[in-house]
Amino acid sequence: MKQFTTRQIVLLSVLMEVSITLVHAPTQAADYAQQHAYWTCAIAAILICFPIWAMLKLKRRFPDQDLLQAIVSSHPMLGRMLLAVYLILFLIIFARDLRIITDLVEVVLLPMTPIVVISLIMLLTLVFMAKGGIRTIVSMTEFTVPALILTLLTMPLFFGHNIDFSAMRPFLHPDIGGVVKGSWRMLGYMADLIILPFILPGRSYNARSAWLGHLIGTVFMIIIVLLEELVIGVPILSRLFYPTYELARQLQLSDFLDRFDLFVGALTVPTLLTKIGVDLYVISLTVKRMFVHIFGGLMVWPMGLLGYVCSFMLFSNIVQIYDFSREWTVVMIAFFVVMPFVLWLLLRPKPEKDSEHHKPSGEKQDSTGQQVSTNQQESQQASRTGKANL
C-alpha cells in the first residue's frame, strides 16, 4: 500500500519546482536570454531529468525507505558524514527561502512591519507545519498549489490588449550564450525538486508521479515566463525583483478590483510557506536519521531558529540572494545532479549477515544490525499506516 497517491506527489513536485522559482528567477533568465527566457526553463528541466532517473533507479532498491534512511543503512559511518553535508545544504536552502518570503511579504503586504517580526511570524507558522509531519504538508499542498495554478493560468483571459507579441521578436535568433547563462540561474532554483526523494519512500516516489510532476511544473514555468515577457516586456522584466507580483499588478478587472495583486499575493504566500515547510521538515528528518535516538519533532524549533539566524547572517538583503545564484548553482549541480548518480552506484540494500547461521538463535546481533532493522520496521509501519510524522 503506497503512502501517498500519484496526485499528491505530482502536486508536491510542482510545489518544489515552481514556488520559489517564480519569485525572481524569471528576472535573471530575462536579463541574459532576453526574449528567449522561456527556453531557460526547458533547458533546466532537461538537465533535472537525469538525477530524477537516477533517483527512481535508486528508490527501487529501497521501496520502504526514504533516501536518508537508505544512506545510513547502507553505510552507517560514511552515510552519517554525508548526511551532515546535506544538512548544511538543506539549512542554506531553508535560510535562502525564508529570507525571500520575508522580503516579499515586507514589500507587498506589510511594509510598515519590522522585517525581524515578519520573519518570526513566518518561522512560527513553519514550525507548527513541520511538527505536523509530511502528511500536514501534503494536505496543505492539495489546497494551495491547485488554487495558485488556477489563478495564474486564468490571468491571460483578462489581460487582453496588454499582451504584446512583438516582445518575442526575433523568434529564431536566440543568444545561445545568454540562454545558457539564464538556464544556469534557473537550474539553481528548479533543482529543489530533488529534495522529494530524501523524504518520500520508494513506493510513493514512483516513475509516473515523478515524471508527471516534473512535466507539469516545467510547463507551468514556461507559461508564466512567457506571460511576463508578453505583458511586462523584456526590458522591464529584466530589472524587477518580483516579476510575478508585477504581472498580477497589471491585471485590473474593473474600477473596484484594481488591486487584484493582493488576492494573488494572498494565494502565493501560503504556497511559499508550504514549500519552506518542506525545507524545515527535511532538515529535522536529516537530524533524526543521523541520530536514531533523537525525536525529530524536538529538533524542529532548534533547526528553525538556526535557519532564522542564518537567513540574516548569510543574506543581509535580497540583492545578495540575487547575486549568489550564480555560485549556488554549482553547489546544486554537485549535490542534486551529480551525487544521485554516485549514490545509485554505491548504495545497495544491506544483506542479511552470514553470521546468523553460525550463532545461536537467541544471541543478540550488533547495534548496527539492530539500528538498520529498526529503521526498516519504522518505514514499513509508516507505509502501512500512512503516517510519516517526525
UniProtKB/TrEMBL annotation:
The lineage of its organism: Bacteria, Bacillati, Bacillota, Bacilli, Bacillales. Residues 352-390 are annotated as: Disordered. PANTHER family: SPORE GERMINATION PROTEIN A2. This is Spore gernimation protein. Residues 370-381 have a biased composition (Low complexity). Residues 352-366 have a biased composition (Basic and acidic residues). One of its GO terms (cellular component) is membrane. Belongs to the amino acid-polyamine-organocation (APC) superfamily. Spore germination protein (SGP) (TC 2.A.3.9) family. Its main location: membrane. GO terms for biological process: spore germination. It is a multi-pass membrane protein. It is found in: Membrane. Keywords: Germination, Membrane, Transmembrane, Transmembrane helix, Transport. The chain crosses the membrane at residues 9-25, 37-56, 77-95, 107-131, 143-163, 183-200, 212-242, 262-282, 294-316, 328-347.
